Amino acid sequence: MNKLCSLTLATALLCAACYSSEKTSTGIGTRVDSVLALMTLDEKIGQLTLFTSDIDVTGPTMRENYKEDIKAGRVGAIFNAYGAAYTRKLQEIAVKETRLHIPLLFGYDVVHGHRTIFPMPLGEAASWDLAAVEKSARVAADEASAEGLHWTFAPMCDIARDPRWGRITEGAGEDVYLGSKIAAARVKGIQGDGVGSLNSVMACVKHFAAYGAAQAGRDYHTTDMSDRVLRETYLPPYKAALDAGAATVMTSFNEIDGVPATGNKYLMTDILRKEWNFTGFVVTDYTSIMEMIPHGIAEDTASAAALALEAGVDMDMQAGFYNDALAALVKAGKLKEGLIDEAVRRILRKKFELGLFDDPYRYSSEQREKETLMSAANLEAARDVARKAIVLLKNDKQLLPLEKDVKKLAVIGPLADARREMIGSWSAAGDWHKASTLLEGVKQAVSAGTQVLYAKGCAIDNDSTQAIAQAVRTAQQADVVILAVGEGAWMTGEAASRASLNIPGVQQRLIEAIYKTGKPVVAVLLNGRPLTIPWLDANIPAIVEAWLPGTMAGQAIADVLFGDYNPSGRLPVTFPRSVGQIPLYYSMKNTGRPMDPNNKYTSKYLDERNDPLYPFGYGLSYTTFSYGPVQVDKQEMTQQDELIVTCTVTNTGARAGKETVQLYLHDVTGSVTRPVRELKGFKQIELAPGASQNVTFKLTAHDLSFYRRDMSFGTEPGKFDVYIGPNARDTQGTAFALR
Ligand code: NOJ
């Protein structure tokens, strides 16, 4: 059926026979046009408008009367509303009380879990386990869709190389290759069997583009970079997410090359739609059309709205500027209505694909809520991902894993029993009351005869040292101390930049006081970003990076501390020694004067080393692995060849363990300079004690390609070094050439 049936127009919009019989894209296209033909200009603009409901608002609420807006057809989508009953109630307003009965779209920031909270995304990326990452997104989408949501504002695909930026916690870290793989895995998990399948939601790739490159790590700040860096480093993860089928894109707050992303036609039209053939819709970030006025590119509501629409932005989140300005611009002949029609088409198409015209309430299911939300299986998945995310940074004399049967164990520190902090920022509808703490996890894990002592020691970020003495007394009574330090959930996420990356408050004083007791100390870091911890590394024998692990924090950390899980996480981001080194990332350029400690006039600092505290890809295990020589199957490859690179990895320790074998490439010379190394592949292998495995990678011309001098993407003949190892630093290599 290609056109509306003969029922009254209003009924026809919801007529299953009209909308469900043809699911092909042409079928949907016809239906979209048939709806568009019924719409007034104001109704069209309403479809381009997204307003917040009243839960969990993260910016100015522009519209107190958003329910009136729904009724009047001034809004096509709502965010920050969830729950089967609540979304149904709001949907009823749209479906029953508006002239055309067009259903609403419900969006929400389901970033690392919906009710069951998984580790914050940077931590999750530390698993380097794409199946685990996909699973976490799948569980989140399953729970979110049961609560009536159709759309999540995730994944965040912003490459971030500055840990001062609090939002580094929301992405996959510094690397193009790992970031792209994780972005794609997240989209697959979020969209499951595709837009329209009942337990999936639409993904929204954000923040387009280069939001992670905010100058000085200060949120919302300017980004500026060459087109080469933009395309080579920042764009690939967004592209990978779109190639995985992501339905929508969100603009970023920052300007880039002098033009705010929300008014940036080069990004939204030239790259996104023309080069990448993106057919979904683009939404702004929160009030970012309005923010083009203080940016200094639009002088009033009308010019900001026109700039955004003409740049290719379909939906206005929360500014209300499209509502306020577009109709008058069209009527005055200053804006083509066709542009509005195009944007409406893209949004209606998604509503059709979601099946909302068949059944506007299909996702609001009390039954599914009961079965799905925080189910035992979902909690188990969260525990599994959280322990896979944990990175063992140091383990002198095999202090870890701890015995479950010791006389007295002290758990000390402001993060030891900090329930709220465990689920991190952007924890959506997660209920922190249901999260477990490290103290609880330890108590559950140890034997009945083990006494667990506890002292908080100090607060996360105030300067009172009063409770430190009590913590020292507690430590003195124990055989071993677990010291939980780090950051509060509020210290990462949006608007949470820090100029210092020390462990905040007086926690360092607490750490040093506990260290002086001479007791064996295991430091557990609970934090959302890399911290500068050279003192800890120099003095504390065992250090565990647990991130902010989510609902199952306590159990997951205990699994690692007591050896029920052998740690396998690897850093997705470099840990600097000091803030002055930032930006510090492994895929740097060599410079013409690479660092030479014996030559003053080389690229280095007077007061700091060049190398990081812990390199990208780094993480220890309770076992050890050795790497054999790296071999290539040919010394020279052609454009058509596949180069096989192999290396034998052996478990040389006494426990079974998982190793993440990483392959890095270095293009020795090019028409433009190339990074000293770039990750081009990784494999996770499980090895029994004493076992070896031959790990094989295939490289093709595509892996050797880059943006050449003329900005064409391809290879250049020449020499390459290829390295394999457990992180970006400790590698072995060999060479080959491309003919
Ligand atoms: C602002 C944030 O930058 C963005 O990531 C988020 O999705 C929106 N607010 C909606 O909450």
Q: Which architecture of the domain at 382-581 would the CATH scheme give at its second level?
A: 3-Layer(aba) Sandwich
Number of helices: 22
Gyration radius over CA = 27 Å
Residue-averaged pLDDT: 95
**According to CATH, what is the class of the domain at 382-581?**
Alpha Beta
Unreliably modeled segments: 1-22
- The level of helicity is 25-40%
CATH-defined fold name of the domain at 382-581:
Rossmann fold
* Largest β-sheet summary: 6 strands, mixed
Q: What is the total tally of β strands?
A: 27
Q: What is the CA–CA distance across the termini?
A: 56 Å
The strands making up the biggest β-sheet line up spatially as: 11-16-15-14-12-13
Q: Structural class given helices, strands, pairing? A: alpha/beta
Shape: globular
Topology of helices and strands:
Blueprint: H1 9-13, H2 16-20, H3 25-36, H4 41-47, E1 49-52, H5 66-71, E2 77-79, H6 84-97, E3 105-108, H7 121-125, H8 130-146, E4 151-152, H9 176-191, E5 204-208, H10 227-243, E6 248-251, E7 255-256, E8 259-260, H11 265-275, E9 281-283, H12 292-295, H13 301-311, E10 316-317, H14 321-331, H15 337-353, H16 366-372, H17 376-389, E11 391-395, E12 408-412, H18 438-445, E13 451-455, H19 468-477, E14 480-486, H20 507-515, E15 521-526, H21 534-539, E16 542-545, H22 553-561, E17 625-627, E18 631-632, E19 636-637, E20 643-651, E21 657-667, E22 678-687, E23 692-699, E24 706-707, E25 713-714, E26 718-725, E27 732-738
Parallel strand pairs: 1-2, 1-10, 2-3, 3-4, 5-6, 6-9, 12-13, 12-14, 14-15, 15-16, 19-27
Antiparallel strand pairs: 7-8, 11-16, 17-20, 18-20, 20-23, 21-22, 21-26, 24-25, 26-27
The protein binds 1-deoxynojirimycin.
